[in-house]
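Design a sequence for this backbone.
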């Protein structure tokens, strides 16, 4: 039978205790380190919101935002006198008629020139309601891929997309209502009278302008300006999200204030 020296026992036991205590400390430290590391990772990792809307819901939400924005824009631009009351919306003389306006004003026809400018703005105001259905029809063509890109874009991203992809078709569709409005408020007749007078003057370059195109472009520019503002409000302000769909989509993707 193997005999163990008592002296050896007294040497080995303390060493064993030291090893056990050391390993215990290592394991505890490792466990605590892993916990700390886990917390750091959780802190740094982005938190994903629950109930993310699917792609179709996002697309529907964007269309709803444009429908709401279009409605408010059209309602605003249809108010009597709004184009003249708000300088940023006012339609001035076409650049081609700037010389005409200055010369005829010098000849005592300032009132006629001012009435012509007023009529251009009245025509835009009168035609504005016609844009509602045209806009809504155009926005139905937005795809799911477009919607995901737009919802994560700038505060007027949907309006930018809408403007870039639909302006040509909107112009074609909106020109007839503008033409009719120009005839109705007397803009066309006033233009012919002023142009005839100016072109009869000696040493002037005869003027000619496409009033339909000019007023159509200016009216659509005013609409896109206001539509962008409405979109921005819907993105930033919860109070502007007036439907459950807007609340769900834009509430989910709302960017926190810095």
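Sequence:
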């Amino acid at each position: 039978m193997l005999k163990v020296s008592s002296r050896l026992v007294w040497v080995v036991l303390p060493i064993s205790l030291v090893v056990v205590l050391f390993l215990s400390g290592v394991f505890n430290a490792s466990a605590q380190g892993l916990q700390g590391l886990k917390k750091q990772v959780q802190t740094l990792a982005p938190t994903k919101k629950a109930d993310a809307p699917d792609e179709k819901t996002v697309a529907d939400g964007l269309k709803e935002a444009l429908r709401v924005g279009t409605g408010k824009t059209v309602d605003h631009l249809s108010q009597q006198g709004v184009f003249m009351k708000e300088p940023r919306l006012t339609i001035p003389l076409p650049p081609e008629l700037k010389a005409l306006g200055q010369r005829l004003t010098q000849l005592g026809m300032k009132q006629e020139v001012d009435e012509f400018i007023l009529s251009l703005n009245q025509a835009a105001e009168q035609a504005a309601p016609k844009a509602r259905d045209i806009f809504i029809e155009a926005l139905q063509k937005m795809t799911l891929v477009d919607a995901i890109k737009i919802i994560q874009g700038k505060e007027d991203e949907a309006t930018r997309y809408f403007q870039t992809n639909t302006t040509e078709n909107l112009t074609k569709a909106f020109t007839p209502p503008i033409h009719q409005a120009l005839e109705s408020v007397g803009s066309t007749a006033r233009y012919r009278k002023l142009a005839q007078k100016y072109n009869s003057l000696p040493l002037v370059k005869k003027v000619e302008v496409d009033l339909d195109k000019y007023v159509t472009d200016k009216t659509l520019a005013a609409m896109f300006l206001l539509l962008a503002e409405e979109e921005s409000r819907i993105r930033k302000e919860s109070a502007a999200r007036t439907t459950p769909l807007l609340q769900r989509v834009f509430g989910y993707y709302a960017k926190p204030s810095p």
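Confidence is low (pLDDT under 50) at residues 1-34, 36-48.
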